[in-house]
Amino acid sequence: MASKPSILLFSEDFPPNYGGIGQWAIGVAQSIHRMGYPLHLLTRYMNPEAEMLQNREPYPVIQVHGKRWSQFRSFYTYSAIKNIYKKGIKPDIVIATTWNIARGITRILKKNKTKLVIVVHGLEVTRTMPWLKTRWLQQTLNAADAVIAVSNFTRDRVIERCNINPSKVHFLPNGVDPQRFFPRSNTTHLQEKYNLHNKKVILTLARLQERKGHDKVIEALPTVLKEIPNAHYLISGALKGTYYKTLQQQVSNLRLNEHVTFTGFVDSADLNAFYNVCDVYIMPSRELEKKGDTEGFGITFLEANACEKAVIGGRSGGVADAIDDGKTGYLVNPLDSNEIAEKLIYLLSNPELATQFGKQGRQRILTSYTWDAVTKKLLATIA
Questions:
Q1: How many other CB atoms are found less than 10 A from the CB of residue 186?
Q2: pLDDT band at 242 (very low <50, low <70, confident <90, very high)
Q3: Does one domain contain both 192 and 305?
Q4: In terms of residue numbers, what domain contains 348?
Q5: Closest to 209 in 3D by CA, of 232, 237, 182
Q6: DSSP string, 93-155
Q7: One Pfam family name from the record (predicted)?
Q8: Residue 292: pLDDT band with limits 50, 70, 90
Q9: Long-range contacts made by residues 68-75, C-beta under 8 angstroms, separation at least 24?
């Protein structure tokens, strides 16, 4: 019986950085380890506390140090792989969680006959870039043995933008940990903190960025309140940037201060409780074409579904792969506040349907979207 190939996963982001790429990295790494594949993980050094936490993982985690990281990333990543080889570690496959990580290591991997797999998530390949950076993107992805795209939308954009052989680009959705995100009834502390008792709670948990569509939910809220007067909109995400001030002003102009709460940043330990306190999760993401700013997938839809919550998302980018329209939630025109209001009113007025969507969403995750399920498909593709 042939031995399992050894794998090195290289990710700039890794918990305690719990962004989408960090979640992808730890979810896949833990599944690879559980499946018995030899694994090493490389990640950017953050601080001593993060290093201590990362070193508790049941596989070797190696921190890559470097100042002015963005400027000298390719040098640091090349040096890190060179040191790996010097230590006698000879991976059969390197998985880079972004093309930026992969750019500096394509030649040394080819020289050592190591297969390179690059994961593309969305924005990092769709955003508007200078000509030179676009050229780097094309060269890097074409140098890979396989490219993993987290949505069909991202896959199509990569093929179109990089003139890459379509057979090398594989769609593989994001996953979610159903033991971390699950239905729970005790959310009293959040109800008391934000005065949510007897309220119908609408939640968006995401960075405060224009493409996420908070403004369209706020625009829809007066219509929602006419039918659901106890509706309350929780906006959860770090309170910084000009867009936050724009949203604050919009809430004030529409006299919605008593119906909208900005909670600020939510710690990873509290995420499950926030999803569970809501009745409907919404993020009507839209594409900002001039910036190339899009939603590559929308992992928060899976997280909310895992908590048995119905979801509403914008019909744009890769969101269609995250939501099973009419079964786990609804897709809406992200620019149409009337349609957004209509779907919110319908779900908030029909809690049995919202519950059904939520249960179907969790079952879909347990069947196809756990990290083990995603990783099995990944390894079947690349190993």
A1: 9
A2: very high
A3: yes
A4: 188-367
A5: 237
A6: EEEESSHHHHHTTHHHHHHTT-EEEEEE-SHHHHS---HHHHHHHHHHHHHSSEEEESSHHHH
A7: Glycos_transf_1
A8: confident
A9: 69/44, 73/12, 73/100, 73/101, 73/103, 73/104, 74/103, 74/104, 75/104
Burial class (CB in 10 A: 0-12, 13-18, 19+), 27: buried
Q: Which among 235, 327, 229 has a CA at the least distance from the CA of 274?
A: 235
The pLDDT, as a whole number, for residue 255 is: 98
Q: Do the beta carbons of residue 15 and residue 53 sit within 8 Å?
A: yes
Residues 164, 92 within the same domain: yes
User: What's the predicted TM-score (pTM) here?
Assistant: 0.93
Alpha carbon dihedral 98, 275, 180, 151, in 10-degree steps, equals -30
For residue 311, give the H/E element and its range: strand 310-314
Query: Does 383 reside within a domain?
Result: no
Alpha-carbon span 221 to 264, nearest angstrom: 20
* 7: enclosing H helix or E strand: strand 7-11
Four-residue CA torsion sign, 305, 234, 127, 96: negative
Strands 169-171 and 310-314: unpaired
String of b and e for 107-137 (b: at least 16 CB within 10 Å)?
A: ebbeeeebbbbbbbbbbbbbeeeeeeeeebb
Q: Using 50, 70 and 90 to split pLDDT, how confident is the model at 2? A: low
CATH value at residue 327? 3.40.50.2000
Q: How many domains does the chain have?
A: 2
Q: What average pLDDT does the structure give for the chain?
A: 95
